[in-house]
Amino acid sequence: MSIYERHVFFCTNHRENGAACNHHGATDLCAYAKKRLTEAAPEYAKRVRVNRAGCLARCQDGPVIVVYPEAVWYTYIDAIDIDEIVNEHLINGRFVERLRIDESFQFQK
Ligand code: FES
Fold first, then answer.
1. Of the candidates 103, 96, 49, 92, which has an alpha carbon nearest to the alpha carbon of residue 76?
2. How far is CA 24 from the centre of its chain?
3. Judging by beta carbons within 10 Å of its beta carbon (0-12, 13-18, 19+), is residue 93 exposed, middle or buried?
């Protein structure tokens, strides 16, 4: 049995040169997601873990997050998008199709 019902990873990687998710406010929006989850549904905040992560190797799609156990990838622009992911997916289990990144990604060797 899993410790958490869902586990969310925000790429908060930073690079001095080149694209990285933290150039899009990832660290702040990760903190915002934790706060919104706690405010909106304190009972879920104990069962859904939101973590910062290093590069998730989808930099070209960034900023990115991934939600397990469903392995659903999202991109986002602002707090409005994070609100929708928190309310729809993390609390109610409904995927946010408009923010999903397709599964055609191929890992670059
Ligand atoms: S910097 Fe975010 S996925 Fe690589």
1. 96
2. 13
3. exposed
Six token digits for residue 31: 């903190």
Q: Which amino acid is at 70?
A: E
How many A from CA of 91 to the centre of ligand 1? 25
Task: Convert the pLDDT of each residue in 40-95 to its tens digit.
Answer: 999 988 999 999 999 999 999 999 999 999 999 999 999 999 999 999 999 999 99
SS (H, E, C) 60-75: HHCCEEEEECCCEEEE
Structure-block tokens of residue 7: 């586990």
- Domain boundaries defined on the chain: 40-65+80-103
Query: Is ligand 1 within 6 A of the CB of residue 12?
Result: no
Cα-to-centroid distance, 23 and ligand 1 (Å) = 10
pLDDT in tens, 84-95: 999 999 999 999
